[in-house]
Write a structure and sequence with these properties.
Layout lengths: L1 E6 L6 H12 L1 E5 L26 E2 L12 H17 L3 E5 L3 H9 L9 H14 L1 H11 L1 H6 L5 H14 L3 H8 L6 E7 L3 H17 L2 H6 L5 H7 L4 H8 L6 H23 L6 E3 L6 H14 L2
Length: 305
């Protein structure tokens, strides 16, 4: 079974390329964006508008409410079923997105992690304040040396999660991760988009300005009842906007500048993640005959036995 993955950092042109290719090859799109799965947060996640993909099926956007929890494991389950369904109808599945963990879970498998235990997590947070994160990192090393060697000593979120999983399951998260892997699923073609950094950052800055111009502040004001969920999910940019609008902790311009920086940092992390994937064929969307080259590679891949 074949499917085409289009990945890369935010603002690199993934959605435009995916829509173009899906129209050309008669395909359907399956999103791989951990922010766009949520309903109601459209502008701040750069969610494609229906008129942009008119006539195409675009799956896994606007999937769940902000109050719901979602995981990479669940994403992989749903996405695999969709890919099978699309392929069996004779159409080509195009998976588009920049959430590396979702794509890893889809293509390699992932264990079903226990749901967050807020009581336990709060206790660990208190210990960080009282004892320091280094103590918890040392504790992790005693029960899960492999994870501790991989997680930086200052990475509070991942240290707490690893300890939480160990406390809840009695098994090291590194062992669970290995057991959850299934090997490469299907026969995906990986297409990666990479722009020169200065152009990518200009695109990001321009997109943030466009978000504010399209009414991002009004979108957030309509989500007043969902603010606690948004704070908890830490969707890029939204907490800064909340601090401007609701908490009055910064000016509008400070919020804009901070959000631009957050997105630039996010793009950098995405590229660090994707560069480790040796399967990705990289393209500069601004290069001559870019679309012809990508279309040709997809055509060759789909014709291959």
């Amino acid at each position: 079974m074949k499917y085409i993955i289009i990945c890369g950092p935010t603002c690199s042109g993934k959605t435009d390329l995916g829509i173009c290719l899906a129209r050309h090859f008669g395909g359907e799109i399956i999103g791989a964006d951990s922010r766009q799965i949520y309903k109601h947060i459209d502008i701040g996640t750069a969610k494609p508008r229906p008129e942009e993909y008119q006539g195409l099926k675009y799956h896994l956007i606007d999937l769940i409410e902000l109050s719901e929890d979602f995981s990479a494991y669940r994403y992989a389950q749903i996405a695999r079923e969709l890919i099978k369904s699309v392929w069996e109808t004779g159409r080509t599945p195009f998976v588009i997105g920049g959430t590396g963990l979702y794509l890893k879970a889809l293509t390699e498998g992932m264990f079903e992690s226990p749901r967050a235990d807020l009581t336990l997590r709060n206790e660990l947070e208190k210990r960080v304040l009282a004892e320091g994160i280094e103590i918890l990192h040392s504790e992790l090393a005693r029960v899960d040396l492999e994870s501790a060697s991989r997680i930086k000593p200052k990475d509070k979120l991942r240290i707490i999660r690893a300890l939480e999983v160990y406390e809840l399951t009695g098994t090291a998260i590194s062992r669970l991760q290995k057991e959850g892997k299934t090997g490469l699923w299907g026969k995906p073609l990986w297409i990666g988009l990479e722009l020169p950094r200065n152009i990518l950052y200009d695109n990001i800055n321009r997109r943030v300005d466009q978000m504010f111009g399209r009414g991002w502040e009004q979108e957030l004001l309509h989500l007043k009842q969902d603010i606690p969920s948004l704070r908890r999910k830490k969707v890029v940019g939204y907490n800064d906007l909340i601090e401007f609008i609701y908490d009055k902790k910064m000016s509008r311009q400070q919020a804009i500048d901070t959000i631009k920086q957050r997105h630039r940092n996010y793009a950098k992390r995405q590229m660090t993640w994707f560069r480790k994937n040796e399967h990705i064929k990289w393209f500069n969307p601004l290069a001559p005959a870019f679309l012809d080259k990508v279309t040709g590679i997809c055509d060759e891949y789909l014709k291959r036995a």
